[in-house]
Recover the amino acids of this structure.
C-alpha cells in the first residue's frame, strides 16, 4: 500500500474527550429528569452534536420542538467548552504525541478529520495544532460520519489521493466514513465495537510509526 497521508480523528484517538462530553450530556439529562448511563454514552461517539442530543432525548423518551433542541444543545456545549478550556497537554492519549511527531519526521502529511466544532480549542490546549498540515473539523463540513466528507476534504486539502490516505478512528461511524471514502482504516478499539476496521490497535501506546510501516508494507 502506498501511503502518503495520515488522517486522525480527534476524540478517542488523540485525546479522551468522551468523558467531558459524557459529563455535560449527563448533567443535561439530569435537568430533564432522567439518567443517562455510560453505556448510552457509547452511542454518541463520532456522532454530531445535534444527533447526540436526538439520541439522548430518545433515551429519556422526550420529544421537543427544534427551537428547544437548539437551546439545549447550546447549553450542553457551554458546559463542555468550560471543561475542555481547562485541558492540559498531559491529557493526550498515551503514545499519540510521539506517533504524530514521528509520522511527520518520516515525511507523512497529516490531517485532522473530526466532527467536533470545538476541535481548535482542544488542539490549542494540547499544543498540537502545529502537527497537522490540514485541520478539517465540524465547522468545515456539513455531513456527519459515516458520510466520508470530512476525510475526503482532508485528503483533498493535503493534495493526496483518498486511496493513499490511512484513517485512524475510534468510532464505528468513522470507520464506515473512511471506507465510504475508499480509505484504509486503523481502528482504535476492540473487535466488538469496531468489527469493520481493517486493522485494530488498542492505542498508540503500543503501536509506533515503525509498526505502522511494517503493516502497510504487507
Ligand atoms: C466527535 C465526538 O468527535 O465530535 C462526538 O466523538 C461529538 O461525541 C462530536 O458529539 C461533536 O462535537 P462538538 O464538540 O462539536 O459538540
Ligand atoms: Mg472519535
Amino acid at each position: 500500500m502506498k501511503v502518503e497521508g495520515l488522517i486522525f480523528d480527534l476524540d478517542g484517538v488523540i485525546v479522551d474527550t468522551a468523558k467531558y462530553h459524557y459529563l455535560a450530556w449527563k448533567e443535561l439529562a439530569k435537568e430533564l429528569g432522567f439518567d443517562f448511563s455510560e453505556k448510552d454514552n457509547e452511542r454518541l461517539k463520532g456522532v454530531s452534536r445535534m444527533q447526540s442530543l436526538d439520541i439522548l432525548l430518545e433515551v429519556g423518551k422526550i420529544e421537543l420542538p427544534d427551537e428547544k433542541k437548539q437551546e439545549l444543545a447550546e447549553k450542553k456545549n457551554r458546559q463542555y467548552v468550560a471543561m475542555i478550556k481547562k485541558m492540559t497537554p498531559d491529557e493526550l492519549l498515551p503514545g499519540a504525541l510521539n506517533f504524530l511527531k514521528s509520522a511527520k519526521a518520516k515525511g507523512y502529511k497529516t490531517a485532522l478529520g473530526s466532527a467536533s466544532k470545538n476541535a481548535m480549542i482542544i488542539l490549542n490546549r494540547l499544543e498540537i495544532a502545529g502537527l497537522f498540515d490540514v485541520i478539517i473539523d465540524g465547522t468545515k463540513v456539513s455531513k456527519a460520519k459515516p458520510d466520508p466528507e470530512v476525510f475526503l476534504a482532508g485528503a483533498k486539502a493535503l493534495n493526496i489521493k483518498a486511496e493513499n490516505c490511512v484513517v485512524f478512528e475510534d468510532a464505528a461511524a468513522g470507520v464506515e466514513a473512511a471506507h465510504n471514502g475508499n480509505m484504509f482504516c486503523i481502528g482504535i478499539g476492540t473487535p466488538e465495537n469496531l468489527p469493520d476496521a481493517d486493522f485494530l490497535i488498542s492505542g498508540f501506546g503500543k503501536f509506533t510509526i515503525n509498526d505502522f510501516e511494517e503493516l502497510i508494507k504487507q
